[in-house]
Known about the structure:
elongated, alpha+beta, 5-stranded mixed sheet
Amino acid sequence: xxxxxxxxxxxxxxxxxxxxxxxxxxxxxxxxxxxxxxxxxxxxxxxxxxxxxxxxxxxxxxxxxxxxxxxxxxxxxxxxxxxxxxxxxxxxxxxxxxxxxxxxxxxxxxxxxxxx
Length: 116
């Protein structure tokens, strides 16, 4: 599904991958985040993703032209996970709404691991 913005001139369609890239890059800028995680469901292994594959750590769902985001992250050891999660939620919501013009309904953070 693609998010659509329409005005008197025409339409702008934004793909899930573009939204996932914005969310992933924004999360990476937040304090305490080492990287995005991809979870291998078959083996239960968590893999740290490189900058080129951030979108695999972000799930985007579009309902009624509103976004629901799920970010799988790996945090730095010693950081306050609750504070880091809240910071990511607020920052990602703000940045995605500003850059895409689409309302973010929810941001869910899944901490998949901790690294030193």
